[in-house]
């Protein structure tokens, strides 16, 4: 009962466990189904995203490609246009050169003609004066003076005309100015018109006074024709400046009148770049009613300018040019364009323009650039390369670059340094950038009611560069539409009333809230240009006069201190600086506005006043970086503002007197002119000690104060000379080089370091190098940067055997020399190599590259006077005789040298072949194989873990106890299995065999991932005197290490493009042993492993060789496999070897093809004939023969019978053999069976005989009827082609068991078409004698000799056939008839009667001796019958023919 309860409890528990397992299984399946659905959903969404992104990418890619194509097309079009322009420029230049050559040739001819004419004229005048008896020199001098006086008179007249034109131009300018002022002034200026008119009248009176003074001065200066050069120069300068001023005034008058008529401001010159400005405006458009007067004035003005220039240089610098009778008038050079006007420019951009200067004179002329105005140097730069002398009509180019920059980036006006009494004015442009007008007022800043001053204690020439921090913050101007734009304008008034204006670009600050439109900006720029001349004209009347009682104010405002500024308009404010006391001056100003949103604007003005009349424009002379013992010069310009000449004295401090000098020591500077002083600086090495505190040894900076002493002045003028002094040393490390022993066939290289100790770049060069030394790179020439070190290669190549001791010289650019000591020992080895360097082509893995060279022994004599002899330095001369060599190739080197050891006789050479075969190292392949095995083990381990996890998950559902036990077992078993697998599948490197799958897989993987390598090998070749053959059994040859030759090999290896995939990737095709004359075919599969399509080419195999490329391959696509077919057909008994190169664009694949031709040979036990004997018809007879294979090749054979050949039917169509003589019969096939089967059969008929083995063959003879002429021919054919052996098969068949052989048969050897039936048994029982069945002829020839008698001999054979058919019959009996007759005739038969047992053959001997009555003239013929008696009787007719022949008579 208890057991039943326990069983039920156990069953209940098992049911619960099974139910829980089923529920768990269903839950697991449900979770897996949900996970699969979720995965499918995410995958679908991902695919949709991918497709959508791909579509977008394709769309944008198409747009990008379209844009790129368009840009490429534009670039190509631009390139074509540029090339066309260049071609046109070249053609125009060619035409210009041609025309200029013609003009120059004409000018040279004219000049030569004029010279001849002048010389002829002067000669005539001289001859006339001599004829009259006058003073020739005096008359010629007076004539010359007269001509010069006439020229001066004419120039004076022209100058008077030009003065009139200037007066008229100034009056016109005044009228235009007043007219413009009336039209442009606002209503506030109209109220003050009365005071302004008075100021204008005062200005007009001053102008007239200036004109009168100028005219009087010019009129007084002209009659003085013999004044000093300096006075003439000053007068000419004033005349030139006045002429230029009048020309400018006339031009301004024309422009202003044109502007008034058009009621608007328009551009006055053509812009630099077309398209950026309006092309419709023209500066030179003049109304028709004023054309005639203006043209007349301009023409007169040009003539005046030319005459004044001619008068200016009347001292002989410029002469009148007369060519072909025409005098050159006007300017000698023509400028195109003559005016460059930059407008509407953008600040920060660069604008360029070219000026073409053309020589408009009739002769050779030249020009140079004098300079540009000081106020233009900050913005305009001139690029002009003086072309030298220019022929007439030739032209040159001048480049003008305009870069508008911001003159001031803060509200600061710096007047600079000026002398007391000068007047300088600057303008501030106040621009209203908004659309609302306002009223402004300018006044001194409240925090600085008075002008601050600091008395200057330093040099008067020093410029103030102090930075002020009182700038306007951004918060003050953020909401104000009115901005302050500073425009610097210097107006310096001297005693001569010369005015200079310095203009700079405006700095306009725009508000962050409002901006100007394009029309407003253009209006403002036009207003600024128009008001520029107004401010210059009103400079004097706008000045606010200071009160004499107050402290003199040096920086003040102009007359316009307040007013109304309209929307989008600007107002010019003037700041005046009148220095009164030497020192620094600074003033602060503020601009207030009525509108509350407009914040005040602040700006400052600074200036320096000096009282020294002499100053140095550049008080800091910077000589940059200087070297010791080098002369440096500079020109120091000294300016004078004094009205009288001053005497100057130049001093250098005592410390620098040995190194620096000023020339001249003293000099005079003229009034208001400049003076140049030459500064010479030659720093010595003692400069650091001599200079003292002026020289800083750490920074190497030299700062020397220089003094200019002015006579009658206590205050000197100081300026400073700055320089950085550095050394010019070059250091060579090491200072001495020992190259050691060097053969004359090699070069020894060593490195030296060249260091520049200077902080300046220095050029260097190794000069005067001996022919056996080379310095690289760049042949020992180059430039060293400051403190730079450069490694140089010194290459030494000895040209003879001796000891070298020399020095190399390195020179710097300042001609300093630095020495490098060198030593070496030259060695002349007994042998030499034809090539010391072999550079192999890029060779693919498993490919081969071959090069050939020679080892030459040129040592044939020890006479060192006639030629160089082998020796080490100055040592003993090498012995003349055979010299041996040995190339020592490293073990891991993929290079083969054949032969590596040899001996070269004197005067001979030995051929050396060097082969490079790049391969993967065996160690590398084994390591890769181990890595692949580890990867396979790792994958197996992962799979094993997955299986164990699945197994454990299944066991969890059974029970907790079983779960633990099964998990432990699984753990133990899994670890054991894993350990066994890991240990079994990870072999060591040495255990991997080359034929294993892991090794081959690693080899293929490395070959497909090969990236290429370059290796350089140096192979030593040891040289020793003596023959290697004579020293094999004795001591080794002694060699000197200094005679060693070196062969350098450059071996680049690349990845193959094509690899062999068949036969485990081997590049060797081995055909093995092939019989001569037979062909064997092999297939080789190649694969393209490169990413490109390859066009294959093949090398040509030996056309007379045994190898043939049957099917080549033309093209291989990436990853494609194709098969090559190569055949081998040897024609000789030897080994054959060839290489087939498969060419691609980058690499080559070399296939090594080898095979051996073997001559097949056999030995047969039967030589030529196999006679089967006599057989009873319809019975069989067998015979055996043996064939042995005597060659080293397995032979495939086949047995052929002529009776079964395919040509048998054709042979039967020929004439029967019995119709031809026996000598002409060539057929071997005789009588055959009637049943159509061959009478002979052989077994086996085909097969293979192994090398050295033999084969037995069984021949069966089975005739089906009686015949004595059964025959056939057996052929032993090897490989289906070659007949190795032939056997003639014969046999005979009888119906009766007896036969006779011997003699000569007299019947036909071919059967008759009629069938001969056998003799019946009844006839045989009756004993009837049959007709003779056969006739036999026995020929006996007796040779007659004197010494002895030898009978003639022959024999017959009688045989009995052993057969079971006639077993009961008795033996065969035979007998001859007519024996007495035979004996009478001399014939003797050994056995006339007898019996023959079955299976035996009886030989019957027959002899003959000539009887006494025999006549030798004719042969003796006797006939008898031979009777055979067996089962039947047979008779044979025997013919005995005998004849006699002498011993000396040859038989026929």
Description:
This protein is α+β, with helices and mostly antiparallel strands. The protein has 15 helices and 75 strands. A hairpin with a 4-residue loop joins strand 24 and strand 25. The longest helix has 131 residues, at 2-132. The N and C termini lie far apart (134 Å). Mean pLDDT is 76; it is low at 186-198, 215-291, 312-318, 406-410, 454-550, 959-985 and 1317-1330.
Q: Which regions are unreliable across 5 or more consecutive residues at pLDDT < 50? A: 186-198, 215-291, 312-318, 406-410, 454-550, 959-985, 1317-1330
Amino-to-carboxy terminus distance: 134 Å
**Category by helix and strand content:** alpha+beta
State the helical fraction. Answer: 25-40%
Features:
single chain; 1452 residues; alpha+beta; six-stranded mixed sheet; 15 helices; 27% helix; elongated
Condensed summary:
This protein is α+β, with helices and mostly antiparallel strands and 1452 residues long. The chain has 15 helices and 75 strands. The model is unreliable at 186-198, 215-291, 312-318, 406-410, 454-550, 959-985 and 1317-1330 (pLDDT under 50).
């Amino acid at each position: 009962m208890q057991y039943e309860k326990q069983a039920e409890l156990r069953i209940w528990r098992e049911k619960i466990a099974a139910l829980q397992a089923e529920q768990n299984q269903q839950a697991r399946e449900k979770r897996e189904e949900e996970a699969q659905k979720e995965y499918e959903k995410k995958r679908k969404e991902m695919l949709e995203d991918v497709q959508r992104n791909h579509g977008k990418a394709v769309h944008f890619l198409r747009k990008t490609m379209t844009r790129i194509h368009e840009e490429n097309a534009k670039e190509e079009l631009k390139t074509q246009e540029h090339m066309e322009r260049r071609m046109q420029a070249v053609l125009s230049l060619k035409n210009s050169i041609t025309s200029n050559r013609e003009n120059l040739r004409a000018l040279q001819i004219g000049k030569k003609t004029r010279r001849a004419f002048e010389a002829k004229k002067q000669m005539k005048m001289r001859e006339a004066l001599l004829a009259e008896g006058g003073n020739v020199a005096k008359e010629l001098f007076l004539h010359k003076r007269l001509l010069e006086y006439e020229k001066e008179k004419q120039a004076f007249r022209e100058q008077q005309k030009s003065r009139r034109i200037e007066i008229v131009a100034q009056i016109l300018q005044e009228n235009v100015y007043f007219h413009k002022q009336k039209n442009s002034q606002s209503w506030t200026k109209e109220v003050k018109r009365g005071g302004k008119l008075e100021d204008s009248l005062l200005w007009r009176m001053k102008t007239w006074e200036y004109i009168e003074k100028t005219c009087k001065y010019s009129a007084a200066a002209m009659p003085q024709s013999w004044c000093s050069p300096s006075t003439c120069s000053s007068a000419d300068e004033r005349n030139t400046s006045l002429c230029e001023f009048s020309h400018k005034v006339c031009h301004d008058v024309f422009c202003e009148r044109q502007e008034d008529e058009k009621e608007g401001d328009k551009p006055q010159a053509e812009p630099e770049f077309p398209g950026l400005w309006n092309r419709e405006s023209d500066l030179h458009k003049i109304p028709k009613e004023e054309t005639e007067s203006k043209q007349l004035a301009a023409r007169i003005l040009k003539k005046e300018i030319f005459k004044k220039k001619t008068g200016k240089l009347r001292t002989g610098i410029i002469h009148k040019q007369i060519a072909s009778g025409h005098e050159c008038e006007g300017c000698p050079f023509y400028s195109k364009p003559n005016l460059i006007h930059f407008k509407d420019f953008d600040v920060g951009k660069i604008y360029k323009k070219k000026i073409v200067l053309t020589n408009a004179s009739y002769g050779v002329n030249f020009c140079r650039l004098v300079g540009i105005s000081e106020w233009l140097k900050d913005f305009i730069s001139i690029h002009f390369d003086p072309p030298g002398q220019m022929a007439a009509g030739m032209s040159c180019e001048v480049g003008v670059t305009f870069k508008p920059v911001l003159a001031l980036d803060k509200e600061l006006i710096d007047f600079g340094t000026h002398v007391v009494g000068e007047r300088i004015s600057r303008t501030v442009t106040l621009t209203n950038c908004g659309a609302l007008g306002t009223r402004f007022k300018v006044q001194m800043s409240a925090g600085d009611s008075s002008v601050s001053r600091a008395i200057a204690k330093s040099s008067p020439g020093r410029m103030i560069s102090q930075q002020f921090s009182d700038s306007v913050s951004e918060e003050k101007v953020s909401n104000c539409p009115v901005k302050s734009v500073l425009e610097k304008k210097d107006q310096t008034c001297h005693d001569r009333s010369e005015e200079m204006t310095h203009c700079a670009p405006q700095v306009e600050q725009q508000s962050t809230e409002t901006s100007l439109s394009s029309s407003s900006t253009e209006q403002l720029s036009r207003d600024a240009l128009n008001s520029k001349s107004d401010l210059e004209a009103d400079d004097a009347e706008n000045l606010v006069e200071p009160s004499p009682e107050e402290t003199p104010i040096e920086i003040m405002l102009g007359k316009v201190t307040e007013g109304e500024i309209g929307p989008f308009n600007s107002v010019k404010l003037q700041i005046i600086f009148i220095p009164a006391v030497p020192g620094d001056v600074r003033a602060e100003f503020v601009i207030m506005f009525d509108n509350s949103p407009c914040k005040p604007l602040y700006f400052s003005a600074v200036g320096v006043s000096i009282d020294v009349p002499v100053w140095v424009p550049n008080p800091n002379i910077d000589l940059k970086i200087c070297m010791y013992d080098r002369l440096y010069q500079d020109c120091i310009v000294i300016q004078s503002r004094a009205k009288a000449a001053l005497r100057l004295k130049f001093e250098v401090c005592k410390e620098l007197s040995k190194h620096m000098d000023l020339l001249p020591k003293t000099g005079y500077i003229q009034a208001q002119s400049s003076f140049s002083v030459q500064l010479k600086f030659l720093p010595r090495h003692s400069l650091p000690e001599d200079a003292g505190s002026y020289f800083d040894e750490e920074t190497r900076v030299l700062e020397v104060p220089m003094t200019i002493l002015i006579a009658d002045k206590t205050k000197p003028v100081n300026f400073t000379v700055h320089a950085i002094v550095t050394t010019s040393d070059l250091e060579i490390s090491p200072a001495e080089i020992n190259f050691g022993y060097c053969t004359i066939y090699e070069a020894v290289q060593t490195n030296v370091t060249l260091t520049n100790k200077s902080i300046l770049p220095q050029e260097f060069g190794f000069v005067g190098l001996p022919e056996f030394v080379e310095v690289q790179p760049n042949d020992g020439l180059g430039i060293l940067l400051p403190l730079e070190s450069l490694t140089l290669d010194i290459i030494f190549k000895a040209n003879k055997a001796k000891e070298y001791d020399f020095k190399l010289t390195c020179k710097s650019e300042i001609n300093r020399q630095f020495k490098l000591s060198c030593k070496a020992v030259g060695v002349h080895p007994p042998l030499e190599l034809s090539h010391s360097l072999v550079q192999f082509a890029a060779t693919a893995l498993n490919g081969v590259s071959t090069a050939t060279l020679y080892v030459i022994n040129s040592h044939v004599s020890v006479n060192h006077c006639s030629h160089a002899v082998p020796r080490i330095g100055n040592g003993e001369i090498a012995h003349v005789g055979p010299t041996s060599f040995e190339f020592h190739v490293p073990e891991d080197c993929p290079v083969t040298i054949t032969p590596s050891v040899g001996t070269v006789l004197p005067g001979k050479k030995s051929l050396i072949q060097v082969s490079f075969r790049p391969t993967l190292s065996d160690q590398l392949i084994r390591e890769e194989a181990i890595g692949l095995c580890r990867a396979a083990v790792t994958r197996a381990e992962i799979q094993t873990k997955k299986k164990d996890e699945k197994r454990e998950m299944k066991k969890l559902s059974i029970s907790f106890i079983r779960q633990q036990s099964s998990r432990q077992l699984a753990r133990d078993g899994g670890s054991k299995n894993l350990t066994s697998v890991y240990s079994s599948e990870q072999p060591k490197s040495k255990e991997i065999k080359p034929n294993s799958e892991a090794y081959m897989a690693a080899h293929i993987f490395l070959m497909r991932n090969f990236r290429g390598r370059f290796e350089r090998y140096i192979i030593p070749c040891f040289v020793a005197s003596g023959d290697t053959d004579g020293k094999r059994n004795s001591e080794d040859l002694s060699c000197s290490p200094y005679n060693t030759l070196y062969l350098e090999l450059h071996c680049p290896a690349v990845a193959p493009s094509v690899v062999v995939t068949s036969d485990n990737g081997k590049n060797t095709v081995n055909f093995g042993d092939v019989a001569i004359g037979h062909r064997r075919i092999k297939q080789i599969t190649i694969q393209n492993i490169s990413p490109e399509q390859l066009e294959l080419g093949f090398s040509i195999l030996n056309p007379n060789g045994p190898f043939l490329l049957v099917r080549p391959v033309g093209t291989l696509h990436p990853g494609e496999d194709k098969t090559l077919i190569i055949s081998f057909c040897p024609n000789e008994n030897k080994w054959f070897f060839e290489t087939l190169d498969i060419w691609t664009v980058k690499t080559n694949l070399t296939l090594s093809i080898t095979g051996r031709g073997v001559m097949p040979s056999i030995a047969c036990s039967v030589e030529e004939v196999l006679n089967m004997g006599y057989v009873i018809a319809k019975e069989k007879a067998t015979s055996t023969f043996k064939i042995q294979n005597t060659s080293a090749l397995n032979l495939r054979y086949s047995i052929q019978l002529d009776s079964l050949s395919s040509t048998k039917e054709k042979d039967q169509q020929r004439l029967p053999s019995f119709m031809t003589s026996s000598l002409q019969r060539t057929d071997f096939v005789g009588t055959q069976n009637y049943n159509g089967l061959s009478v002979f059969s052989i077994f086996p008929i085909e097969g293979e005989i192994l090398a050295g083995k033999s084969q037995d063959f069984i021949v069966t003879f089975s005739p089906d009827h009686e015949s004595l002429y059964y025959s056939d021919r057996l052929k032993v054919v090897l490989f289906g082609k070659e007949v190795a052996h032939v056997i003639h098969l014969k046999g005979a068949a009888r119906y009766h068991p007896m036969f006779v052989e011997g003699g000569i048969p007299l019947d036909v050897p071919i059967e008759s078409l009629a069938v001969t039936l056998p003799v019946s048994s009844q006839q045989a029982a009756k004993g009837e004698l049959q007709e003779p069945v056969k006739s036999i002829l026995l020929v006996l020839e007796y040779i007659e000799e004197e010494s002895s008698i030898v009978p003639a001999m022959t024999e017959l054979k009688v045989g009995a056939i052993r057969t079971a058919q006639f077993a009961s019959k008795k033996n065969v009996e035979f007998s001859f008839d007519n024996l007495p007759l035979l004996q009478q005739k001399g014939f003797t038969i050994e056995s006339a009667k007898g019996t023959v047992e079955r299976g035996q053959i009886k030989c019957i001997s027959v002899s003959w001796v000539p009887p006494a009555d025999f006549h030798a003239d004719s042969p003796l013929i006797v006939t008898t019958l031979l009777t055979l008696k067996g089962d039947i009787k047979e008779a044979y007719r025997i013919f005995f023919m005998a004849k006699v022949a002498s011993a000396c008579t040859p038989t026929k």
